[in-house]
Amino acid sequence: MLVLGRKKGESLLIGDDIEIVILEVNAETVKIGIQAPKQVNVLRKELYNVVADTNKHALEVHVSVEELQNQFKSIKKL
Prior knowledge:
The protein folds into two domains: 1-38, no CATH class; 43-78. It has a three-stranded antiparallel sheet, with no helix packed on it. By secondary structure, the chain is an alpha+beta fold. The chain is elongated, with a radius of gyration of 22 Å. It is built from two helices and three strands; from the N terminus they run βββαα. A hairpin with a 4-residue loop joins strand 2 and strand 3 (30-35). The protein has helices spanning 45-60, 65-77, and strands at residues 11-14, 18-25, 30-35.
């Protein structure tokens, strides 16, 4: 892991087309700006983890089309 010190207004580059700019520094938070091409996904890690967990759980669900049809029929009867 590369660790850098940056002040408000300073930036760093990742490759040729991603720039991270320090916008504001407070006691407990740092506000950053990210300039990246539209095809580059930029996600907060906690959001990425939620999406990854959701996808993992979706793969674990094993329901056949027949089971879904039966459940739908029973709901329609109500």
